[in-house]
Amino acid sequence: MGIYAMDFALKFNHSIFSTPYPPKPSPKCRFLTARCSLPLSSDGAATGLAERPWKVADARLVLEDGSIWRAKSFGASGTQVGEVVFNTSLTGYQEILTDPSYAGQFVLMTNPHIGNTGVNFDDEESRQCFLAGLVIRSLSITTSNWRCVESLGDYLAERNVMGIYDVDTRAITRRLRQDGSLIGVLSTEQSRSDDELLEMSRSWDIVDIDLISGVTCNAPYEWVDETKLEWDFNSDGRDRDTYRVIAYDFGIKHNILRRLASYGCKITVVPSTWPAAETLKLKPDGVLFSNGPGDPSAVPYAVETVKEILGKVPVFGICMGHQLLGQALGGKTFKMKFGHHGGNHPVRNLRNGHVEISTQNHNYAVDPASLREGVEVTHVNLNDGSCAGLAYPALSIMSLQYHPEASPGPHDSDCAFREFIELMESTKQAA
């Protein structure tokens, strides 16, 4: 066992405190030497030291392009595969974590500071976390919010969701913007080689997979929770007539249901496979086709359900519901390069010329050129010109590619719920 020695020489010159200029070297300087010794292990490392007060890299994100990103883990441990997408929202990470539309995906937050407000039980958008993992730059070591009940790390660990931090999220985002969304593997298992993880990323694909069946409800239920008064910025619907709405759960967010309820709707939520005939038996005033994860072409049963309902009652499609409506109207959907994920996407309403800042979360879009005659494009994404909304007045159809409930995000598009109410009201009056 060797001896590790450190010598410190400290010089003291009393005149330095009494003169404004650097003192000249003096032969009367005092020298103090301190010496400490620590035993060395066979590999030269000092033993007997206390555990490091900081966490070291213990996780890897391996992308299908062959890049390997070392990081530190939090939340759950293990190995998980998913599609890596980036989200540009500045706030609302808990709503993002509980958005079922992220099933099968690793969400990379471009905002570098995550976890500083902890988590609470009021902001959850579904019954659990459906995303495959969370990738962030900096994990807050403290929480500061009056509603906080738990830290982000503990929250993810309890829900078996993996997370990594201290990774260059800016560099990964630039790679995704250049090359498109990539399949990746998160792992904390040191026994797995880089080559093994790379092979996993290249042998899995999110395209043509039915992700909706894993996030939908198991049986119909009545929604009874309205937006709480302290959060309700529009309560006009409380004095309106009641409209009965059937909401197809393709991965529906709670705040969509809260907003509909606030506008005076009585809502029954049904599973994604609920037969159209059973829906029509309930004689609803309108049908909502909700948001949801994955490829709309992978759920032909949902498209058939939409087709059977069109023309019978007014319908409103949001995100996945918008894409399913597009296919039901003869259109085609396609996978975008890296999709839209964030709370700051500008959209132009072509009917009134207004620009709305919207919340978006989708990797697929409708090709407007493929739609049948009479279908109107009502909204356009100003970042890339993609279709962001449709209407077909002949069949009382309206849809948006983004999330008007904006949880999290701006409230610019909340008027879409009022438009749905007006669509049901006008149809009822015309009957």
From TrEMBL:
Enzyme Commission code(s) on record: 6.3.5.5
GO BP field: 'de novo' pyrimidine nucleobase biosynthetic process; glutamine metabolic process; L-arginine biosynthetic process; pyrimidine nucleotide biosynthetic process
Molecular-function annotations in GO: ATP binding; carbamoyl-phosphate synthase (glutamine-hydrolyzing) activity
InterPro entries membership: CarbamoylP_synth_ssu, CarbamoylP_synth_ssu_N, CarbP_synth_ssu_N_sf, Class_I_gatase-like, CPSase_GATase1, GATASE
Pfam name, any one: CPSase_sm_chain
Ranges of residues in domain Carbamoyl-phosphate synthase small subunit N-terminal: 57-187
Pathway noted in the entry: Pyrimidine metabolism; UMP biosynthesis via de novo pathway; (S)-dihydroorotate from bicarbonate: step 1/3; Amino-acid biosynthesis; L-arginine biosynthesis; carbamoyl phosphate from bicarbonate: step 1/1
SMART domains found in the cross-reference section: CPSase_sm_chain
Catalytic reaction equation(s): L-glutamine + H2O = L-glutamate + NH4(+)
The keyword Amino-acid biosynthesis is annotated on this UniProt entry: yes
NCBIfam families in the record: CPSaseIIsmall, PRK12838.1
Role of this protein: Small subunit of the arginine-specific carbamoyl phosphate synthase (CPSase). CPSase catalyzes the formation of carbamoyl phosphate from the ammonia moiety of glutamine, carbonate, and phosphate donated by ATP, the first step of the arginine biosynthetic pathway. The small subunit (glutamine amidotransferase) binds and cleaves glutamine to supply the large subunit with the substrate ammonia.
Family from the record: Belongs to the CarA family.
Record protein name field: Carbamoyl phosphate synthase small chain, chloroplastic
Lineage, highest ranks first: Eukaryota, Viridiplantae, Streptophyta, Embryophyta, Tracheophyta
